[in-house]
Amino acid sequence: MQSKEAEDLVRPLLWIGFDGRTPTDDARALIEAGVSGVILFARNIGTPTECRALIRELRACTRNRLLLSVDQEGGRVARLVEGFDQFPPLRALGALDIEAVRAIGSKLGAQVRDAGFDINLAPVLDVDSNPLNPVIGDRSFSRDARVVATLGAAMTLGLQEHVAACGKHFPGHGDTDKDSHFDLPRLAHARERLDAVELLPFRAAIAAGIECVMTTHVVFDAIDPGVPATMSARSIEGLLRGELRFDGVVVSDDLEMKAIADHFGVGAAAVKAVRAGVDALLVCHSAQRQQEAIESLAKAVVDGTLPIARVESARLRLQRLAHRRCAP
In sequence order, what are the residues at sequence separation of 6 or more whose Cβ sits closer than 8 angstroms to the Cβ of residue 4? Predict the structure, then answer.
């Protein structure tokens, strides 16, 4: 296979971001060339009318179905702000019953769909078991894994009345004392502890039919020592696909986060992540790093490091999600 053909093959595995309220030339070119998704942040989004206009402009760049995603969790992680209804952090919902949380999830999903998106990168399924955690905190429903499991499944069902939900951050970012945006966290818990706490909410969400799961850039010694979950076949193909029987779309957290970019490099990490079982790679900022990921994946296909069958299975899952969820 030639390099250009390989780039065409792997390009749909990228979900990209860009700066500003209008698509950059680089973003337009990548969408036209075949990336399958775009993630928008507060830096991109104005009023509901402006947001819908931007999404129409992005969709007009391609004849393909383009998956539009956003992190609209509620509380401090909200990208839809100006003119949008605001939702409380998940911790504020922790004392509510299942039906109330499902109803809130449905209302949140309707807001995200009305703004033009296909996927909400929520709910957070991390258990807030470490008071020193700098990044999760009130983004989690509770410090009790059973509460997170029950309400996470309810929120999933509500969201998916309107958009695809994406549970995060697998296998669990709740007990770290480092933020993977800046460091590479490591958890030394035994597998029995992971089953009882971290994995419980993901099992419940998968049973509820969640369509996407986002990986975390955390090393779990009991699963794959030294390897972040995003790049770990034991974590994704072995645990998530094999044991938990998840057959939806696996999405990486942003590969430009320092836990990955500073320790492994975006291109090398992209190859390892797809080999491990990731279907969609988030590269949220730099056009240079987006191209680096594409070129590294293509090179790995050409030299046989990345099996074509693995790329094709990822593309198929993304196509199924797009046919199911993309707005016309």
Answer: none
The dihedral through the CA atoms of 230, 234, 239, 242 has a sign that is: positive
Q: Which of 118, 126, 253, 254 is catalytic?
A: 253
Burial class, 131, CB count within 10 angstroms (exposed 0-12 / middle 13-18 / buried 19+): exposed
Domain of 64, in residue numbers? 3-325
Backbone angles phi, psi at 212, to 5 degrees: -140, 150
Q: Which H/E stretch holds residue 212?
A: strand 212-215
Q: What's the pTM? A: 0.96
Contacts of 308 (CB under 8 A, 6+ apart): 1, 9, 301
CATH of the domain at 95: 3.20.20.300
Q: Is 181 a catalytic residue?
A: yes
- pLDDT attached to residue 103: 98
Which residue out of 26, 144, 177, 181 is catalytically annotated? 181
Give the pLDDT confidence of 123-180 residue by residue, as tens digits.
999 999 988 888 899 999 999 999 999 999 999 999 999 999 999 999 999 888 767 6
Count of structural domains within the chain: 1
Residue 263 annotated in active site: no
Per the listing, tokens 């076949």 go with: 233
